[in-house]
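Most newcomers find our protein records easier to grasp once they have seen one. To make this concrete, we reproduce a full record directly below:

…
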Amino acid sequence: MQHSIEPLPVALVQHPPVFLNLEKSLGRAETLVAEAAGQGARLVVFPETWLPGYPVWLDHAPHVARWDYPPAKALHQLLMENAVAIPGPAHDRLKALAAEQGIILVMGLHERRGGTLYNTMLLLPPDGSDGLIHRKLTPTYTERLIWGVGDGSTLAVLDTPWGAVGGLICWEHWLPLARAAMHARRETVHIAQWPAVHELHQLASRHYAFEGQCYVLAAGMALTLTDVLSGVRSLPAPPADVVELLASMVVPADGWLKSGGSAVIGPDSSYLVSPVYREAVILKANLDIAALTAGHLLLDTAGHYSRPDVFRLTVDTRPQAGVSFVKKSLHDE
C-alpha cells in the first residue's frame, strides 16, 4: 500500500463499557466512535477487553479463585455469553461500524473460541473486511483463570495509508522478544492496550515508543464500582450471586477500580497528550507520520542498530492446534 505523509488524526476512548452487557456495550461503542469520527478521527482505539469489560473481580473480589465456587462459575458463564465470536454477529457489527464511519477501529475484547476465552485485540480497516486479530500471548497472574494463550500466528500488523498499525496487550510489553518481533514489522503506530495506564505502564509504553521509533497510543479504561454494578444489572436477568460477588469488590482509596491514564506518546518518548486520570473522556491527537524518519538516524532496532551476526530471533507464525486431522488418500493403507 502506498503510504500517506498526511497527519493521522487519532482518538482514544477512555469511557467504560456497559459492564458485562455485550449488546449495550456495542451500542455505546457505536455512539462513541461516531463522536470521535465526527471530530475528524481516522483511527479510534479502545482499551484492553473493553467488550464487555476487563475482569476487575480478579483483583478486587475475595474468593474468586476458590475451587468449584458457584458465584465464580456463574460469573464465568455470564462472561462467556457476552464474549465475542470471530466470525459472528458482534464481529460483523464492529466491521460495519468501521466501514460506516470510515475509520480504522481497534477494539479490545473477550473472544469466545470453542470453550475458551482469549484476550484479543481486533484491528479493523474502513473497507468492511475482517481485519486482523492479536491474541494475548501470556495472560498475567490471575488472568490465567480466564484466558487461554495466544500464538505467533497473530503477531501481525494492519497495513494502512499511514503505515503499519500493530499492538500488544498489557504485560506483553515486558516480553522482550515480542517487542523485537513487532519492531521488525515496522510499526508507525503501536497500540498499547491496558486495563488502566498507571505509572509502570506509562514507563513501558514510553520505552516502546523510543525503542520502536513509533507513536504509541496507550489506552486505559476509567471504571468505577457503580459502572460495574449498573452494567451487570442492565442485563435481563443477572444472577443474584454474580451481583453479590461483584458488589463485594474492595475499591481503592481513590474510588476508581480502573483510573484511565490514556496517553499519546511520540517516538522520542515524550507525551503528545499527557495521561488523563479518573475521567471518562475521548483523547485526540494528530500524528505526524513523516517525522518518524528523523528518529531512525539515531535508532533502528530492526535495521542498523541490530546485530544479526550475534542475535537472531525466529518467530513461529503457524497457528498452534492441539489436534490436527489429516485426510488419507485413497492409496493409503
In short: Residues 22-38 form the longest helix (17 residues). The first strand starts at residue 8 and ends at 13.
